[in-house]
Amino acid sequence: MSPLHRRRLVGFLQSAGSIAVTLLLLVTLTFFLGQVMPVDVVSRLVGADADFQTYEATRLRLGLDEPIYVQFWLYLGRIVTGDFGTALLTGHRVIDDIMRVFPATVELGTFALLIGAGLGIPLGVLAAVRRDKLTDHIIRVVTLLGHSVPIFWLGMMGLLVFYAWLRMVGGSGRVAVFYEGMVPTVTGMLLIDSLLAGDWDVFWSAVRHIILPASVLGYASMASLCRMTRSFMIDQLSQEYVISARVKGLSNWQVVWGHAFPNIRVQLLTIVALAYGSMLEGALLIETIFAWPGFGQYLTSNLLLGDMNAIMVCVLLVGVIFITLNVIADLLYSVFDPRTSK
Asked: Is residue 163 within 8 Å of 212, Cβ to Cβ?
């Protein structure tokens, strides 16, 4: 085995080991979080009017009479076999519920990321190029508002102005009530499913409904990406190679996008990946405001109900999302910067 292949193998094993340890710690934290929650799982299952015999039988069946370390071992065993329990709210397996609602959140988060990154990165570059000028000050005020304004307030104001008053966008939900259930579920993402079905009425209705919640969710991401891009670009534009490029007579466009910007792509990858994870996690408020039937609304409903099976799986899923996005970002490093793979 060549030294290069050996280093790659060692790096892979180290990454796999760190991911395994992180997941184990996450599972452990999730389990003990469930233990300290003031929720009687047995009462939730059998109901408040159940007799003592039914209560005790259910408690024994769940293994809650065992010591904590035995319960934890049983919990790990169930997770390894894919048994995440049954949701009290729906009566279905929690994993089935997650697979049903999560595509809606992915669709919303992806649309929001396209808006946030599509606006935030170019605006950040523009702010850096026009540093301390009027354009830069305007962009910085816009991004400051994105960091400061509560997302739930922005969502409610958006519904009031653009839906209730101007009628420019759709209201709550993913599609107009008339179109619900009109296209078969293939991916769970309504925009894609409506295109696959060739139903343009459903597609445009879905676009009208997703544009406002995605814009509100993407605004906060846009503010963060714009600020970080501006900071990275200002650092690069002060480097000697940029001065040399300008001396050679290259246009401002060539200097900015051909020389400076490629050197911040690797840094932006991590920021964009974390922004995407934050959108999937932070969609909770937006999905509640816009009655979006996704992961955030599912988690909110189960938090109010106190269903620890669903809550713990949701916490695990958030952790897995961030781990996965970081791994993907690391893999993309070698594409944008081959030096990292040597």
From this structure: yes
| Whole-number Cα distances in Å, 319 to 32, 34, 273 | 16, 16, 13
Counted residue by residue, the chain has a size of 342
Rounded to two decimals, what is the model's pTM? 0.83
DSSP 49: T
Residue 240: pLDDT band (50, 70, 90) is confident
Q: Shortest CA distance to 215 belongs to which of 73, 71, 115?
A: 115
The answer to whether the CB of 112 falls within 8 A of the CB of 221 is yes
In terms of DSSP H, where are the helices of 130-199? 134-148, 151-158, 190-197
Average pLDDT rounded to a whole number, residues 26-30: 81
Domains and CATH numbers, the chain: 13-80 (no CATH), 94-341 (1.10.3720.10)
Residue with token string 């690391």: 330
